[in-house]
Design goal:
By secondary structure, this protein is an alpha/beta fold. It has 23 helices and 21 strands. The chain is 38% helix and 18% strand. Helix 6 packs across helix 7.
């Protein structure tokens, strides 16, 4: 249960003065519907309203705050003319102009003969000073509330910066004095303010430096958020380690037979990773490990050898893929190797129906199937195992911490290996997979040729089509990737359907189309035709990013490449690195390119190192959209910027580990404060699994 001290922060924004039902909906859309959401909504700029020159010495096109006397109101003669109010500061005149406003309201706010403080942008019009729709009009005694530094926030339609500042000021007044959860010497060394001081300072920037991620108030808030994240993960990790597992240590005979049948040797990285996984399996605790490997690094064979270790002990293993296409590809790779050594591997998907499904489930429950390959269908209620000891989850980012743990419920404390071909920077590994051990395959098999990556403008399209025709005539197969399925009125991008139709003129029936809106059966048919070679050119959306293995495909054209993230481009390019033939990737862009887009495309041209690309992507785009689309398994930080706060993340990681080691139940005075921190950043759902929170 959330501590009472935090109740004011999790109250509805409607409890703040002047918000109301309409305001609540607008704020909900902008940042969230609670007071805390307003507090995490930090300013991105500032307006200096301290400039208050005599009009005779003023400079145009600057924000000014002036004390003026109202001389005259001039009503418009036509609807197109503004309402004008003539003022003077004693040195020169100023005209305030208003469009589409009520004269009564203006007369009330600006009575003739009275003095007012007006603040807004000063402009020169026909040699006279003018201010259109002043941002502020207040009485002289209220000048301190206006003539200062104003924070500028991200806004939404219907919410002005003026209004938002007032509301956030109220929200700050709701913040209780919270206990200190940081170690005193650490805070002193970093020169960190208290949480309350940091929050107030972050919303009251005095200069541009205060808006930067490395300002002390923002560093403090970022560290608090990162510490909450890492502490929650550390507590879950501790709980996992406490849970008894099974000592899985096979005799190695099946694995040796498979290795002897391969026409290649494992890389040093694969050997290292297998040792790490083997140590986990042999321990009395459950394995929960992330295996990260770049495209073509050989994760599938590592997964198979891991599962065979379990089979050697008389138990069963399962590998789950996110799509049926990828599950079938695993079957095509794994099943022949298993058949050669007398091991039964089968496929189970949502489309496995009728008698075949019934028989398969009976065999699985009886232990007659050693390795089952499938999609989410593996984990429906009627799927039972005789003795599941090892679960491999491939290319699946959509699992939260506790969802990962629940995957093993089909077995008896089964070990879990989560695999991804998306290179993830260490910062994101710590924040998203901090509950897991971590292995990385950072080598690719010998003999793989580098991809010739070229960056070309869209006006080179005719030349590219001609070159592609020659390639296909010589036996090549190619992908043509488009970002959208159909034309959008808002975004002028070539759509897959439109491009497919235009390419048909050149390639006829040799061109096919696949996209996410197609039915699975249709997609499978097209993909099968492409694999067989009946289709030579496949026009596709990013549906092919994961789970397509056609070694004969050696050419890829990515249209509007500037619109893709680096990691996504890398994943797509990896589709033509499946074989050992030379391959070409053409990144088409629509000029002119922004500096950021140019930098991203140049990185793709310079390197195929997925881990370097991932780090660059984090720097250029931030962590939120690193995988192309936001993944629910990755935290979306409100205060921390992973590209700027790497050192804070690593420190928070170590701090969390030390806290859990020294005070696992969070019973100390600092532990009690840390409980409040977990609730403040809504991490109780993780921590409560490990220890009851007050």
């Amino acid at each position: 249960m959330r501590p009472e001290i935090l109740f004011p922060l999790f109250a509805s924004v409607a409890t703040l003065g002047g918000v109301g039902d309409k305001g609540e909906k607008l704020l909900q859309r902008l940042c969230g519907g609670r007071v805390a959401d307003l507090l995490w909504h930090l300013p991105v700029n500032l307006i200096d309203r301290t400039y208050s020159p005599p009009l005779i010495n003023a400079r145009p096109n600057l924000i000014v705050s002036l004390k003026v006397k109202i001389i005259e109101h001039v009503a418009p003669k036509t609807s197109k003319q503004p309402y004008r109010v003539i003022c003077s500061d004693g040195t020169d005149q100023l005209t305030l102009t208003f469009f589409k406003v009520y004269a009564q309201s203006i007369a009330k706010n600006l009575p003739v003969g009275q003095e007012r403080i007006v603040s807004g942008k000063l402009e020169s019009f026909n040699g006279q000073w003018q201010m259109s729709h002043p941002d502020y009009i207040v009485r002289p005694q209220e000048a301190p509330s206006v003539m200062g530094i104003e924070a500028v926030y991200p806004l939404t339609a219907g919410v002005s910066n003026k209004i938002l500042n007032k509301i956030i000021k109220q929200a700050l007044q709701r913040v209780p004095r919270l206990p200190e959860w940081l170690e005193p010497n650490f805070s002193k060394a970093r020169k960190f303010p208290t949480f309350n001081e940091a929050l107030a300072a972050a919303h009251r920037p005095q200069n541009a430096a205060d808006l930067l991620p490395l300002s002390l108030p923002r560093q403090r808030l970022a560290y608090d958020e990162l510490l909450a994240n890492q502490l929650a993960l550390a507590m879950v990790r501790r709980e996992v380690k406490k849970q008894c597992g099974r000592e899985i240590k096979g005799n190695g005979l099946l694995r040796k037979k498979v290795l002897d049948s391969l026409n290649f040797k494992l890389t040093e990285a694969q050997e290292r990773v297998l040792k790490e996984i083997g140590a986990d399996q042999a321990s009395p605790y459950r394995m929960l490990r992330l295996l990260q490997g770049d495209v073509g690094s050989g994760k599938t064979i590592v997964a198979l050898l891991t599962m065979l270790n379990a089979v050697e002990c008389g138990t069963q293993a399962a590998i789950m893929a996110p799509t049926e296409i990828l599950a079938k590809q695993h079957l095509e790779t794994i099943q022949p190797l298993c058949e050669n050594i007398g091991i039964r591997a089968e496929l189970l998907t949502g489309r496995t129906k009728g008698k075949s499904r019934t028989k398969l489930l009976e065999d699985l429950a009886a232990g007659k199937i050693d390795i089952i390959i499938g999609t989410h269908a593996l984990f429906v209620e009627d799927v039972t195992f005789k003795d599941l000891a090892c679960v491999v989850v491939d290319e699946q980012h959509r699992f939260g911490v506790h969802q990962r743990l629940s995957l093993s419920e089909k077995g008896n404390q089964a070990d879990i290996l989560v695999m991804t071909a998306t290179p993830i920077p260490r910062t994101l590994v710590l924040t998203a997979y901090g509950d897991m051990e971590y292995s990385k395959i950072d080598q690719v098999p010998e003999g793989r040729k580098p991809v010739d990556t070229r960056v070309m403008p869209l006006d080179k399209l005719p030349e590219i089509v001609t070159a592609l025709q020659r390639k296909i005539q010589n036996g090549a197969r190619a992908y043509w990737v488009c970002p959208l399925v159909e034309e959008s009125e808002k975004i002028d991008l070539a759509a897959a359907i439109g491009r497919f139709e235009s390419l048909q003129k050149y390639f006829g029936s040799a061109v096919g189309l696949v996209h996410g809106k197609m039915k699975e059966k249709e997609k499978d048919q097209v993909m099968e035709s492409f694999k067989k070679g009946d289709i030579k050119l496949l026009v596709a959306t990013t549906v092919i990013e994961v789970g397509v293995n056609v070694p004969e495909a050696t050419v890829m054209v990515i249209e509007h490449a500037e619109r893709f993230g680096l990691a996504q481009l890398h994943q797509l390019r990896g589709r033509i690195k499946r074989g050992f033939e030379a391959s070409t990737c053409i990144l088409l862009y629509n000029p002119p390119l922004s500096e950021n887009s140019r930098a991203r495309l140049n990185i793709m041209r310079e390197t195929e190192d997925g881990f370097r690309i991932a780090e660059e992507d984090l720097e250029l785009r931030g962590g939120g959209e690193l995988l192309g689309t936001r993944q629910s398994g990755f935290d979306e930080f409100r205060l921390a910027d992973l590209s700027a706060h790497k050192d804070l993340l690593y420190t928070a990681h170590k701090d969390a580990q030390m806290i859990v080691a020294a005070d696992p139940q969070l019973q100390s005075p600092r532990g009690q404060a840390l409980r409040i921190l977990l609730y403040l950043f809504e991490k109780e759902e993780y921590a409560m699994q490990a220890t009851p929170l007050l």
